[in-house]
């Protein structure tokens, strides 16, 4: 417990600083777009209808989906701008910034337009009649009078942006969401709570400061404005300063969204730190996102599984022996897009179908072939990716599998659902410690429909020839047997006496073993 | 002598509906002219053409011998006082800041503006300690006095007034009307005032122009207008004023008799 709190608090400053910088940048960008647009839209009814309609439409897209959409959009944009010598990072800060700013525009635009068109026409007539130019009228009369309503919109946007920025974790941007998402995957509720409380507290403080700005605007109270504005600027500057040293010459390590990946990312970070290199983890990435981020050199290194790349990236449906598969994969990735497969860690984390021992015995199921007979009466629980992956189509086709129902869960809750009988079969991972601890049966694959899944260290094209990076990570190759990985996974996933991924990584590190 | 205001062959339509037909008119410097007529007669449009709150479709408007579009509209307006029924005081500015706005736009220095504000508060009979107040703290009559001071701040030679006393109670209206008439005299202003109240026009102005459906139907001194003969549209207005005055006089007589 104390260990988890300590780990969460240790991760907090960096996450908070990145969260503040991201939110502030998104709000600033949204203001730069929304406020000048509002001034024009207030004078032109047709532009007003168009702008508010567009912003309203954006608002109906779920925030998570909008973040996810910016990834392929930026990849495409980057492909267009590359001939000009400009590469856009498709992962991390830029997509998060754009998605959050796009969302923040609506409340700002709507309030600013309402504030401006709601002004007393007599006051505007007087402004013209005393001899103000358009710009003077805006500066001396319209903006000061509309300021409280405009500020109310900015406050709404700020609170909303700080909350939604936690989702930026999913596109590889460090933020308070890292604590929340990592905590959710490893059932570390202390981490989740620390992340949520920090985000809530930040939103409350920023809202209070913006309220002070609002009340300092009309009538004008310069002392209040200076106090609130100064505090906001100082906080952002402090967050920026805290981030600055970590942002250059840092190795970026990718991690997908489950415990084993968090542990391996921490292990890689520790190995790099041991050689004096800086490293930063981008966790919670989907499989496809992680791979494409590596291919685009948005991350430098991560661990993926041979079978996953074989089926998903190379689109192969055959299942050759593990060593052959690995050799072909290494060659193919080196050719295009130039990714270096440093080598296997020594364990396999295969997709497997697993059942509770009592249920399997009850139906007399030992292999997937047995399962196929009983499947029309059973429910499949899958992780969020499995049903969309070619492996599943391969298995289903090879065994003519058809379930009564299938449900998707985040991995932690999938095991829960199997334990409480909500589902009968799950898409498990062979290195998962819970297979042993929950006494599950892994079903045999007599038709060899599932390829091998050796865990491989992959290095991005940009760093493929970086000898220092390779030297730092080479000691891990072949040094992590499946028993140890399973034990480390269980340390993070179990309910009692839970460890953090960082602590499990230290336990797993071959260099720490005598 | 150059006319303070000169209209020549001015046309104006709104959304295809003509509101002014071939208007030609000269206003002499130092005169106090009232534009009267029913709603929609074109009197407010005529007034707003002078400081270019409206631009004509055809014809020309000159102020002090210069075409109104010779300068950008804001420059023209800083030289013309404008007072209207809506008053339009800036609610976020103090009384002093409201009065000082046109001098500020003209780039006067601060001491000169401060001195001018103090002078104007006296001129429109407002206490000096009103300067730091916000408009919301004033009565309707006081607000229109601030509006008048604001219009006079940059010492314009020409004042445009659109129903300036329209929203005030009769006593305030009478006092403010007579106070303004005195200012008009003492400052040597040229005043063009729109009103639908013929009595107000008769009592304040030295020239009355009656408009109907976008045309001038009568143009005379109050005395000449009362003496008649007047065209039908003007006669009806004057008859109302005369009948009301007679009725009130008769009522006063009978009260004194009784």
So what's the oligomer here? heterodimer
Number of alpha- plus pi-helical segments of chain B: 10
The main sheet of chain B orders its strands as 6-7-8-3-9-10
Helix tally of chain A equals 21
Helix content of chain B: 40-55%
Radius of gyration of chain B: 19 Å
Task: Summarize the model shown.
The complex is a heterodimer of chains A (514) and B (258). With 514 residues, chain A is an alpha/beta fold.
Task: Tell me about this structure.
The complex is a heterodimer of chains A (514) and B (258). With 514 residues, chain A is an alpha/beta fold. Chain A has helices at 2-43, 45-60, 63-81, 93-117, 121-129, 134-164, 177-185, 189-217, 222-243, 259-274, 287-295, 306-312, 322-335, 357-363, 368-374, 390-399, 411-419, 433-437, 467-473, 482-493, 501-508; strands at 251-256, 279-285, 301-305, 340-348, 351-356, 379-383, 405-409, 425-429, 440-442, 454-459. In chain A, the strands form three sheets. Chain A has a five-stranded mixed beta sheet with strand order 7-6-8-5-9. In chain A, strands 3-10-4 form a three-stranded antiparallel beta sheet, sandwiched between helices. Chain A is elongated, with a radius of gyration of 27 Å. In chain A, 48% of the residues are buried. With 258 residues, chain B is an alpha/beta fold. Helix content of chain B is 41%, strand content 24%. Chain B has a six-stranded mixed beta sheet with strand order 6-7-8-3-9-10, with helices on both faces. In chain B, helix 5 crosses helix 6. The model of chain B has no long low-confidence stretch (mean pLDDT 90). The A-B interface holds A 120-133, 136, 140-141, 144-145, 218-220 and B 51, 53, 72-78, 82, 84, 86-92, 101-102, 105-106, 134, 147, 150.
Write out key terms for the chains shown.
heterodimer, A: 514 residues, alpha/beta, 5-stranded mixed sheet, 3-stranded antiparallel sheet, 10 strands, 61% helix, elongated, B: 258 residues, 6-stranded mixed sheet, 4-stranded antiparallel sheet, 10 helices, 41% helix, 24% strand
